[in-house]
Amino acid sequence: MTDQPVPPEGEPPAGDAKPPGTDRPLLDEPDLYANREISWLAFNGRVLQEAIDPWVPLFDRLTFLAIFHSNLDEFFRVRVASLRSLLRLKKKKLKTLGFRPGRLLREIHFIVTSQQDTFGSAFRGKLLPELEANGIFLLHHRNLSSLQTAFLRQYFRDRVLPYLAPQVLEDKADAPFLKEGRVYLVTELWPDMEVTLASERPSYGILEIPCPPLPRFVAAPGEGYNILFLEDVIRLSLRELFPGHEVGSAYAVTLSRDAELYLEDEFQGDLVEKIRESLRKREAGVPSRFLYDFQAPYALIAFMKEHLSLEEDDLVPGGRYHNLHDLIHFPRPGHLDHLARGPLEPLPHPSLRRCPSILDAVREKDRILHFPYQSYEYVVRFLEESARDPNVDRIWITLYRVSEESSVVRALMAAARRGAEVTAFVEVKARFDEARNLKWAAEMERAGVRTVYSKPGIKVHAKLALVSRREGSDRREYAYLATGNFNEKTSRIYVDHALLTADLRLTGDVEQVFRYLWEEIESPECSHLLVAPFTMRDGLEDRIRVEVEECRRGGISGVVWKVNSLEDRRVIDSLYQASQAGVRINLIVRGICCMRPGLPGFADQVSARSIVDRFLEHGRILRFANRGRAELFLSSADLMKRNLDHRVEVAFPIYDRLARDELEHFLHLQLADNTKARNLDPDQMNHYVGRRAGEPRVEAQDAFYRWLEEGLDTPRP
């Protein structure tokens, strides 16, 4: 019998379990695993689907276009750059990789080019006409009225010109250093003579678009709402920048550089100083992509390729405008609010909202929080109350990514100033947040917080806090465990779950993890938490084996996992074997999925889906039927080799009945979604799940918000 604890209506039956001994072998089978880079591109394709979905409001589609472009930029800076580095390996080492980097890079470029074509077609063919229909006009330097031209020329002289440093490129000695991710205009320059020989070749000028500090979009006068990209304002006045030249057309180029810090193998010395030095070098990293306007003449691109010492594989054609992640800042007139979905403001927690003391409420029972559906203020209150309470004499916390203006960090500093012992483990290898984490660490140290930095060779990704409080003659610990970061900003857009608890079973294990981080013990001895890289992998695989055994006995079995990424091959093999034994497996995978759900003979019992909607799905939930006594874990870890073997991660069980009920309902809605869910078939074609005839519309994120909202008026027992 298979367990279907949270099935959507109409879920097909699992089918008969295979008898023992009929499993197909898994050794060296081809095509069992999707490539992680191609799978990630499929995820970004789902983001792009939101941008072209006519049911998504217009301004929200612009936002998804921005997210798509931002994702792609990071992909080239990190993943493509790493693949490019593999091309430098000798043939003998290349053979050990199991794939051909050159072939994979060509496939990546083919997919990216196709996606960018879709991006451009959606932007030009659908979004721009819809903007115009609503009185918003995206102008360029060749379709301006005389009034607009005069206004923009004056804007250029007053606001833009002071930031420009145009340069004429004559020979290779003039080669400029292109900053990572900045947009440049390269323009053709001809001698300013009455007669120019037809055979004469142009020289070229280059300048950086000063955004930031200037805004990317400029409003111009005229009927309606008239917007220009900053580079088109500059194009209008290029002749002022290159006196003595006849200025031809100007084309955008952008260089992405390798963003990896390459610290994984450094086990000696001052890691913090190595990171500071690597951050200084990051902006000068080797090129990973030279994006250029596809309309640029071949001679111009060949000239830039030679001057910048680029390789052919660096060259990627793009559109007229680059860095379109700036569309997130596209001006949105206030009277057109109907072109965006109304906000879902964070809800109060049904019980904590009435509690004068968070600590006292948590002492009574566990409290679960769901972000961004519920307010993050309760996490801040938990820490601020602990900072003020004279009976709290110790706070331990892990910090991976914190916000620019972090109330969490300020509460820790306040506690330290009061005299409490505050120790913060600061992960300074959190990609793209290294500098911010170092800044906050320095501020905390000045306030008296003891800071412990990253361990070389391993990242600490667990999201934990432990507060120790004197209560009469006793001492009680209060723990916070979460799937997401201590970050007030991302808590408004990332779907995460957190547990506040004083349960001795959990607080004792959390203390073990911290004592490992403080290097007081060699490994944490935990009875309830699954901790990577120590017990999480084996704990998951052991539980899958239980499901297999129970299924073969005809008992209640089943696995429901919600994760961001599923990449680890040992875990995938365990799931294949469970499927072959007849265990029903439901996966909800936001991003990378290297398993091939539904693959005949291997994953017939596996269904997988991905949900992309207004909030970023980030929480990890692991559910096992466990012979009819379901186990539910929340986890900081994705099911990737790096998380299970090279990071400190924590999966924590949910024991409280009400908390379990809420997570069960959350999973039910995710599996019932027929609006934003896509099927992850063996080839990850991103087909929408769709609705059956007569089936009600279910949009999981909106439905869970409404369910929590209803619970405020009718508290659940």
Q: What is this entry, summarized?
A:
The protein has 717 residues and is α/β, with parallel strands linked by helices. 36% of the residues lie in helices and 21% in strands. Strands 14, 18, 19, 20, 21, 23, 24, 25, 26 and 27 form a 10-stranded mixed β-sheet that branches. Strands 10, 11, 12, 13, 15, 16, 17 and 22 form an 8-stranded mixed β-sheet that branches.
Describe the structure.
- The two termini are 30 Å apart.
- The radius of gyration is 28 Å and the shape is globular.
- It is of the alpha/beta class and 717 residues long.
- It is built from 19 helices and 27 strands.
- Residues 4-28, 261-269 and 278-283 have low confidence and may be disordered.
- A hairpin with a 4-residue loop joins strand 5 (217-220) and strand 6.
Architecture blueprint of SSEs:
Layout: H1 36-52, H2 58-86, H3 91-95, H4 101-133, E1 136-139, H5 146-160, E2 167-169, E3 183-191, E4 203-208, E5 217-220, E6 225-229, H6 230-235, H7 238-241, E7 245-257, H8 271-282, E8 287-293, H9 298-307, E9 315-318, H10 358-364, E10 367-371, H11 377-388, E11 392-399, H12 407-418, E12 421-426, H13 434-447, E13 450-453, E14 459-460, E15 463-471, E16 474-482, E17 494-501, H14 504-517, E18 530-532, H15 536-552, E19 559-563, H16 569-580, E20 585-589, E21 606-611, E22 616-617, E23 620-624, E24 631-635, H17 641-646, E25 647-653, H18 657-672, E26 677-679, E27 687-688, H19 700-713
Parallel strand pairs: 1-6, 8-9, 11-12, 12-13, 14-25, 17-22, 19-20, 20-21
Antiparallel strand pairs: 2-4, 3-4, 3-7, 5-6, 7-8, 10-17, 11-15, 15-16, 16-17, 18-25, 19-23, 21-26, 23-24, 24-25, 26-27
